[in-house]
Amino acid sequence: MKNLPKTRKVKIHPASLKHIKKGHPWVTADSYTKDFPNGEDFLQVEAGETKLLLLSDPNHPRIKARVWAFGEGRDLRANFPRELKERMTAAFNQRKAMNVSEQRDNFYLCFGEADLLPGLFIQAFGSHVLVQATCNFWVLHKKRIADLIRPLWEEHFPDRKYLNGWWCDRGPNAQSRITSLRQGTSPPDQLVIEEFGVKYHLKPMDAHDPGIYTDMSAIREELFPVLESSKKVLNLYAYTGAYSLIALKKGAEEVHSVDLSQKYIDWLESNLAENPELDASKHTSHCSSVEEALKKFKASGEKFDLIICDPPSASSDGKKMGRVTDSYPRDLPLMNSLLNEGGKIVAFVNTHAMSWKKFNSNFDDIIKNKNLKLKSLDILKLRKDCPLKGGFQEGDYLKGRVFERFE
Ligand SMILES: C[S@@+](CC[C@H](N)C(=O)[O-])C[C@H]1O[C@@H](n2cnc3c(N)ncnc32)[C@H](O)[C@@H]1O
């Protein structure tokens, strides 16, 4: 305790403090953060009775610090190694209790703020883990985290051999830096994992784009009953095909996947080839913009039982970028016209910038204004190994709705 460096005190905006007291864990850039010192790992806030220890991230463009705990900085700093271990252990315990690893190789072991590990995301991929540090504070503790992961893994998932992990953080020019957790080794170029009995190729060196969206996995599982009752499926913004392949696995007789990128279409096809028990003749890839594909399907009179639409938050038609909110007023009526009676649409928006209220009213307005025969069945949000944190809207970024067509 004696040798601990002094923790520099900073002031934060009263509005930041108010949000923090309600559970929001970030201090975002403002006139107060301009005075935050550089070169500190921890910062102490003292505002009246309230004391807080922050994890500093001065080079982050927006989030300058994240809350570690309420209390006296000196004590909290002294306890940091123990507290980190306890929080990581609690996160691993939760995932073990959920039995997620019995169904899939890919699952989150720590989901950042929701596990009280702000900016620290740890995903299992088979016998490997991917650590994504969105807060550069953690770079200072890379070895400590690597040393914790292995024994925690072996204790919680003894049936799964632990091979290695890779670490991804943000370099000085905001580009991703990937390094191995074990010195002297490098991540594999490619590995194969299984999600709900379907195999996928992953490319660990593309840590921001390894080939599967694990935050969607629990939602895919939640949609099993919808998938099982759908014979003809259209997967829009298909990426590497997770929804297309699980649709085939769940008994679809015809699946169409649309993506603008030939790279992802090729990746989807290689995933399909990795699963010979899924009849590839039932699947068709369309390398096209969603808008073009929907128009073509309409012109040819195609009808589907299920349309899944999971656009990126900023989507491109190959020429210009647009916000996802701009595409639904155009595309939802087209999707509606492609549905069989009783057919369903699963529509997502992937951004924290839109509240649930706005998300819901946007769809309700389109349905009302365009007189679409769609009734709302369900909402879909992050769950299971990707929990939410009260008071932290940014963590609640994945929003979905299930609609059914009626006559
Ligand atoms: C968020 S990912 C979809 C993830 C996928 N639903 C999953 O769970 O695996 C978005 C995909 O949309 C594709 N994309 C972006 N703009 C597009 C457009 N206008 N038309 C078709 N695909 C587009 C990208 O290439 C990317 O593969």
CATH superfamily of the largest domain: Vaccinia Virus protein VP39
CATH names the topology of the largest domain as Rossmann fold
Oligomer: single chain
User: What level of helicity do the residues show?
Assistant: 25-40%
Counting helices, strands and paired strands, the structural category is alpha/beta
* N-to-C CA distance: 71 Å
Poorly predicted regions are none
Rg result: 23 Å
- Assign the CATH class of the largest domain: Alpha Beta
**Number of contiguous helices:** 10
Mean pLDDT: 93
Portion of residues in beta strands equals: 25-35%
| Sheet with the most strands, sense and barrel status | 7 strands, mixed
Number of strands: 21
**What is the count of structural domains?**
3
| CATH architecture descriptor of the largest domain | 3-Layer(aba) Sandwich
Associated small molecules: S-adenosylmethionine
Strand order, largest beta sheet: 15-14-13-16-19-21-20
Q: What form results from the Cα inertia axes?
A: globular
Written overview of the protein:
This protein has 407 residues and is α/β, with parallel strands linked by helices. The protein folds into three domains: 64 residues; 117 residues, Transcription Regulator spoIIAA (2-Layer Sandwich), CATH 3.30.750; 193 residues, Rossmann fold (3-Layer(aba) Sandwich), CATH 3.40.50.150. Helices cover 29% and strands 30% of the residues. It contains ten helices and 21 strands. A seven-stranded mixed sheet has the order 15-14-13-16-19-21-20, with helices on both faces. A five-stranded mixed sheet has the order 1-3-4-5-2, with helices on both faces. Strands 6-7-8-9-10 form a five-stranded mixed sheet. Helix 8 runs parallel beside helix 9 and helix 9 packs across helix 10. The longest helix has 26 residues. It starts with 7 loop residues before the first strand and ends with a strand. The mean pLDDT is 93. The chain binds S-adenosylmethionine. S-adenosylmethionine binds next to helix 6, strand 14 and strand 17. The site of S-adenosylmethionine has 20 residues, from helix 6, strand 14 and strand 17.
